[in-house]
């Protein structure tokens, strides 16, 4: 074991190891109260409470008229949004993760005589909101700022899931009629969640664009207010309350890592944080399959990227917002990307290590950390990763877990070509069993993919114990002169050796 802590334990000096842990924990902030739901949270609010939310600051002016910068949002807008949403939203927990800190930073995460200020990873649990994502912040702020007339005409939104649930839930609470257009392909859990909170759901087309067109039609036809998921100053201000909450909960943070889709979350958060402390770094993470904000930064204007599927469906956005782009271009320090395999592994790590469920988009920050995508300077020590959402279909979760296992070397697919005579498959399986590999599935191929006549290809799906174990299998099968290859493995591992 490499870490100081382990060495101390192995030497039997438990007292010293306790001291080390004590020192590590002494740098922590007290934990905020966890979100405990009350039955009232599922019912509409009284008129009196709605009035309170709409006018939180006695002498406040409507924030939409006092913006005096080029970005359409100021710290003042976000502070007012913060006062507004406080009535309905409890702060989500932020928690230091000793396990992830050590997994990612090794020795640097442990306090010692020579390391007085260890690197610490904090997790911001935005997946703990009632509807499972940060989207409630923007939805409440937008709905609270509607005039009485706008409220009476109702709202409409288009979304693939999290925004839909947030708008549906808070519209129900504020007594505003709500229609949500969702693509027919949206995850079932998100469609059902949206219906459950009371919105009328219109399923239309295969993607968000189709849903947007239908929502725009309804907006015009029925005179409803459109609640945009990100390209709206009130929504951006609402999402920015995350930044203020972080500064209240842990003002010593020096880095905040945040997923990027259309850009509402990171735009608001970065503007809030940088206005308070410009030295704090704000880093965005996009899915490799859809890098709209990176492409826009390069082009110096918002650009449209082609749609591609990714397990981070929440951030698969073709059109980044022009409002969010402007803020991000000014306030966000860097944006990195992660691929689906890396995201899957992050979802799995969060389940195993932190016992918390994150959807693909919500786990991108951890994916970037686990794969060292972010270049930290020596002074970046207190890093907060935003877990932005946790709504995931169980079917997809199963697929993600399997992909995560593949990425982590714990699930492997082996293709062995052997002469098609009795006993050969048994030889392969026996040697795998001797190496303690658990066989999950076996398939045979003869006619396809150029299997020579007289031979058979056996495809074995194996449960393995990490990359060292797969290395052992590789060496052993090579020694035994089997004709084999690993299939569908991450490129940096056995994928290139096929
Ligand atoms: C879980 C999750 N994380 C991050 C994002 C990105 O938010 P934004 O579009 O504001 O960048 C979304 C957007 O829907 C989301 O659902």
TrEMBL record:
Residues forming the ACT domain are 413-498
What keywords tag this UniProt record? Lyase, Pyridoxal phosphate
Q: Name one GO biological process term.
A: L-threonine catabolic process
**Could you tell me which Pfam families the record lists for this protein?**
PALP
Write down the InterPro entries for this protein, in alphabetical order.
Answer: ACT_dom, ACT_ThrD-II-like, Ser/Thr_Dehydratase, Thr_deHydtase_catblc, TrpB-like_PALP, TrpB-like_PALP_sf
* MF terms in GO: L-serine ammonia-lyase activity; threonine deaminase activity
Q: Which SUPFAM superfamilies does the record associate with it?
A: Tryptophan synthase beta subunit-like PLP-dependent enzymes (SSF53686)
Query: According to its UniProt record, which cofactors does this protein need?
Result: pyridoxal 5'-phosphate
Q: Which family does it belong to?
A: Belongs to the serine/threonine dehydratase family.
Check the record and name the PANTHER family matching this protein.
ACT DOMAIN-CONTAINING PROTEIN, THREONINE DEHYDRATASE, MITOCHONDRIAL-RELATED
Q: What is this protein called?
A: TdcB
The organism named in the record is: Acrasis kona
């Amino acid at each position: 074991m490499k870490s100081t802590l382990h060495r101390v334990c192995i030497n039997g000096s438990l007292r010293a190891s306790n001291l080390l842990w004590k020192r590590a924990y002494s740098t922590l902030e007290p934990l905020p109260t966890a979100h405990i739901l009350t039955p009232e949270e599922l019912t509409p609010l009284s008129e009196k409470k709605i009035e309170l939310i709409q006018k939180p600051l006695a002498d406040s002016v409507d924030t939409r008229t006092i913006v005096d910068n080029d970005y359409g949002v100021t710290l003042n807008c976000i502070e007012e949004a913060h006062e507004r949403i406080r009535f309905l939203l409890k702060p989500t927990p932020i928690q230091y993760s000793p396990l992830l800190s050590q997994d990612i930073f090794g020795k640097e995460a442990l306090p010692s005589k020579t390391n007085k200020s260890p690197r610490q990873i904090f997790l911001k649990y935005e997946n703990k909101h009632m509807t499972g994502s940060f989207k409630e912040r923007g939805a409440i702020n937008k709905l609270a700022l509607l005039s009485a007339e706008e409220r009476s005409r109702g709202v409409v939104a288009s979304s693939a899931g999290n925004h839909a649930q947030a708008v549906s839930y808070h519209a129900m609470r504020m007594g505003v009629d709500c229609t949500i257009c969702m693509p027919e392909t949206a995850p079932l859990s998100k469609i059902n969640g949206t219906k459950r909170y009371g919105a009328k759901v219109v399923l239309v087309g295969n993607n968000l664009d189709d849903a947007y067109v239908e929502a725009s039609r309804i907006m015009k036809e029925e005179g409803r207010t459109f609640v945009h998921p990100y390209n709206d100053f009130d929504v951006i201000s609402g999402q920015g309350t995350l930044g203020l909450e972080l500064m209240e909960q842990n003002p010593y943070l020096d880095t905040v890592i945040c997923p990027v889709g259309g850009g509402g979350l990171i735009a608001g958060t970065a503007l809030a944080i940088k206005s308070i402390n410009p030295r704090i770094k704000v880093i965005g993470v996009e899915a490799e399959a859809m890098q709209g904000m990176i492409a826009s930064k390069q082009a110096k204007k918002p650009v449209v990227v082609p749609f591609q599927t990714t397990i981070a469906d929440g951030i698969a956005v073709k059109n980044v917002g022009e409002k969010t782009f402007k803020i991000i271009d000014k306030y966000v320090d860097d944006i990195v990307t992660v691929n689906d395999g890396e995201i899957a592994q992050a979802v799995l790590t969060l389940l195993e290590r932190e016992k918390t469920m994150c959807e693909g988009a919500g786990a991108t920050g951890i994916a970037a950390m686990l794969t060292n995508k972010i270049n930290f300077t020596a002074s970046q020590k207190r890093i907060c990763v935003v877990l932005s959402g946790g709504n995931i279909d169980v079917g997809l979760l199963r697929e993600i877990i399997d992909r995560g296992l593949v990425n982590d070397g714990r699930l492997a697919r082996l293709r062995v070509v052997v002469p098609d005579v009795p006993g050969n498959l048994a030889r392969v399986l026996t040697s795998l069993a001797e190496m303690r590999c658990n066989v999950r599935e076996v398939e045979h191929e003869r006619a396809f993919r150029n299997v020579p006549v007289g031979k058979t290809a056996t495809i074995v799906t194996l449960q393995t114990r990490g990359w060292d174990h797969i290395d052992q299998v590789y060496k052993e099968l090579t020694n035994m002169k089997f004709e084999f290859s690993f299939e569908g493995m991450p490129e940096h591992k056995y994928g290139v050796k096929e």
